Amino acid sequence: MAHHIATDQSGAIEKATIRRITRRLLPFLVLLYFLNFLDRVNVSFAALQMNADLGMSQAAYGFGAGLFFIGYFIFEVPSNMILHKVGARIWIARIAVTWGAVSAATAFVQTETHFFIARFMLGFAEAGLLPGLILYLTYWYPERHRARIVALLYIAVPLSSVLGGPLSTAIIQHADGLFGLAGWRNMFLLEGLPTVIIGVVTFFYLTSRPAEAKWLTDEQRGWLQRSLNDEAQVIASRQGTTKGHRGLFSALKDIRIVTMSAVLFSIFYGFYGVSFFLPQMISAMSVEWGVEFSLVEIGFITAAPFAVGTVAMILASRHSDRKGERVWHTAIAMLVAAAGITIAVLGNSSPYVMLVGIALLLSGVLSATSTFWAVPPSILTGMALAAGIGLMNSFANLSGFIGPYLAGYLKDRTGTFDVPMYIIGGVLVVAALVLLGSRRGLSGASVTTETSIPDEVVSSGR
């Protein structure tokens, strides 16, 4: 009887703690990532006017859009290690202020070269935000909650199109001439400056570690710290070390980290290869469909597949947490994405079939991403985890350079997006098979769910 009472009390503390953390931190983190992704992908909507104003070809636009990820790559791992050292509150605030300022400054580029420099600097300024947020969540959530929590964080990605697409195109269309600037220039300005303000707020709002969380009770802080410490000991026993993590450079050479980096590269390749060109794809297809869309209508049509992808991502992540399984969930989602891109290409003569295919692609890559990020904390801790997440995300984001540039180049050469879309499908299939072939080495990616809390606990904190 006493054991049952103690278990019930522990479960009640867990529910209350997770609910409190989620309500306190997650909405603000989603807002940050929403602004981040909006400032990253709004260039795809700016391209509807900007390319002509600056005299850029599709290949030059793809190259410039992709330069973001070169700057991102250079500073990604150091940024995440700095965050682990100085704390999330200071470092995430710094990231937000600098990327918002650079994004706003893009409003004043005058040449193709200026655009290239602005995109490179934006990536350099933003580097470390996503891996920093993923790392930050591991400080607050035990393993069995993380896929759902990452999925809730990733709502910001589709929201940046569901809400950001119509917002960006409305600014372009209706703010044309404001401040004496073209519509696409005002879009960068009006969407970049609020990020600077939120960055300042971040410094005062975020709490770096649970030990500093005065908004948790002593009982809640104690439960959380014990749970996280117990998980660190389990990981340490898997690795055969008493410190809970190996040396930094050993982690960076770990074949599992290399494999997971390649898998994440393919997932991001699928996302960026399509998202940077989706507004232009819809605009071009409208001619074949015999319908003329306004900029705002293109924004709403672009948002539809992202809305579907959001629902799929949340359902998949909850199922992954409930089953305590990550690898198969990630691989199957990648195969769904590959099937979706194939449907979109083969059915591009029909607007409905093409949008269904794009929706399947986005459902797959978003779902795969949310379950993927639950894997690294199960095999690494401490500075090795910070560096490992940074390395994975850094390498994977190179796909954001290769994907848009290759898609733009092949579009210029062939006149269609068919070939680059088929390449995306092939990359996703190969990476899914590699992941499944490596699943034994990722045995830590299967989590114990005996003490998992019901779905409604996380839902209540949204």
UniProtKB/TrEMBL annotation:
Signal peptide: none annotated. It is a multi-pass membrane protein. SUPFAM superfamilies: MFS general substrate transporter. Residues 25-443 form the Major facilitator superfamily (MFS) profile domain. The chain crosses the membrane at residues 21-38, 58-78, 90-110, 116-139, 151-175, 187-206, 255-278, 298-315, 327-346, 352-375, 382-407, 419-436. It is found in: Cell membrane. Keywords: Membrane, Transmembrane, Transmembrane helix, Transport. Pfam families: MFS_1. Its main location: membrane. Gene3D superfamilies: MFS general substrate transporter like domains. This is MFS transporter. It comes from Dietzia aerolata.
